[in-house]
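Aggregate trends can hide what the representation actually does to any particular protein. The sequence in question and its structure tokens are set out directly beneath this paragraph.
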Amino acid sequence: MAVKRAVGLMTTATLLAVGMASSIAQTHDHGGPIGPSLHVQKRLIDLGRVREGTTSEAEFVLENSGTEDLLITSVETSCGCTTVKLSEEDKVIKPGEQSKLVARFDTTNRLGLQRKSVTLATNDQRHPRITLTLMAEVETLIRVLPQPQLLLRSARRGMALPPLEVYPTEANAKLDKLEVDVRGGFLEYTREEVTNRDGVEGVRLVFSVPAELELGLVNGMVVLSATVQGEQASMPVRVTGQVVGDLVARPAIIQSIDLTPRGRRFAPITVASTNESAFEILGIDAGEFIGVDAQPQKNNKEWRIRTFLKEEVPDGPLATKLVIRTDNSGQPMLYVPMFVNVQSRYRLEPEIVLLGASPERRSRRVRVQSFGPEALQLLEVSCDNPYVSAMVEKSATYSDRVRMVRIELQNGDPPSESFSAQLIVKTSLSGAEELRVPIEYSPAK
């Protein structure tokens, strides 16, 4: 028994030794892995603060720590603002050698913290794809505080907007000149010289809504062009929001891009007084295909309007306008555009049936589905060609809105010539009482 136990111990030791030898065999004689192996000394490079409109570079050192040639098969960047300099020769890295990849980042029209990536695909089986990252804080010559944006949150005519202050980005720089271009002239503004707490001189801009500006949504831009110590820079300021009168409707537009079934109710429209005065809605016109219902809220200082699709609306895109008539002398009418994609009353699948003379092509099924509130009934199915028969599959009933129709060639020798036909389906659907599906037959070659 002792001898057997000793043999067992020797066997285990032998296996361990073999395993260690095998593990050692998978590495290079100096500890590196067998085969190609990509090692990047620094995968993230922070470029720090850079000037907008310039191009900055990040250099990544690629090393092959394996025993075979490393091949870089593809290089992808996260956006068009980042390009890579890597020659064809540098895409093949010998064992123990290095190659340099230079990523160039174009900062034009990019402000704030930026993070861009370069993805490499290689023949390194352990890590076939790696991502290199470069970061930068992109600044221009000027700063706009609190942010380069103007939000018109239900602004009234004549209202002043929160001010913007413009300063040089560098504290020891001087703002020599500042020009303001209101694209379209939809805002008025005043300006004054200011100095911040750090003693940096700048300009305060106070924009206001002109008395003659049209009511409704606003989406525009103000461009600030500055000269700082002889250098020029510009910065866009986005202007978005809504100009309102005594009354405001929210949402200002109803839009349904997805297929919308008949009878669907949309999110309610709230018409509210902006000056806390009561008002009456005298009437609403939404066209012949939109149903409406209006109810007063908050002592007639607010009204809630519900809209829905009528059953008689046609299939496809529908563009209309909700016209709301009120007793407010300053705003007797409000308009809410509506864009809806109306779902079809039915769907046929496939939309065309292809038959052939071979056994597997002699028969096909057509799926008929309705989207209305009532159950689908197929009153009659037929084909206008004597070579083809059609029948409703009674057992294939998945729901009360789905029916299956079987189409097949009549028994006997199949026709030797191609022909066209139509499947005729008579249904219980209002507005889709008769559906037709084209049938194309081609004999076997």
In short: The chain has one helix and 33 strands. The longest strand covers residues 231-244.
